[in-house]
Amino acid sequence: MLAISESMTATVEPALEPKHSRSRPGTLVAASRRVSPATPGYHWDNERLRVKELEEQVHELHSSVICAMNQMLDLKDLGTGVHSTRLAEWGMRVAQELGIEDSGLHDIEVAALLHDIGKVGIPDAILNKPARLDEAEYALMKKHPEYGWAILRTIPGMERASLYVLHHHENVNGEGYPGSLASKDIPVGSRIVSVIDAFDAMVSSRPYRKGLPFEEAIRRLLQSSGTQFDSEVVQAFIPIAEAEMPSVFAASGTSPATQL
Questions:
Q1: Which pTM does this prediction carry?
Q2: 155-193: pLDDT as tens digits
Q3: How far apart are CA 222 and CA 134, in angstroms?
Q4: Which of 204, 202, 206, 218 has the alpha carbon at shortest distance from 250?
Q5: What does DSSP assign to residue 133?
Q6: Are 69 and 161 in a shared domain?
């Protein structure tokens, strides 16, 4: 499985121009011309090879679309570059700790990477407001999971990831949004993204506030465990956060010793 997050901190050029299109132009046309049941020496092995080539190109195109979306968020200056990459890595590790099968990891990686894609539909004046949002502004901000779902669900292969994005602000006590889902009714990918996104937001500095110290962020995760956050996800994530604490704070603009 291609770990999309590994390419996020590099450049968009490889993502926008898949390897096959650079090194082997016209692969699809050439493959269709050289393989035919009427061709002398035709073998099913050739047909399987052509199918494999097509599958690889579709997979590369899929990854390129994801990378392009992430870059689009960066251009909107939402600070999602390192943030999204970190969440994608954490999301996969938490999923593995929870015993989720390899076949389900890709959707969680995509959801963690693009969970805020719907914010492209939120006015910059709200996204960048250096103060608390008023009631009307907050109501509009709460629409971003639905906007993200509407974007991703149209892309083949992203149906499940789009549901994870839609529900990543649900609370396990049923008081979240947009669907007021509770407990296990919330998709597991959404429950994972909820915890790791909240933690990263707490420890990251913003123009209008400093990030929380590590211990305080963990305390708040535990305090909200079972109400806002899934307890199993929190317990699976804490050792991961502890192991990466120095690099997390170096990237987030604060330090473990920051005082409240």
A1: 0.76
A2: 988 999 999 999 999 999 999 999 999 999 999 999 999
A3: 28
A4: 204
A5: -
A6: no
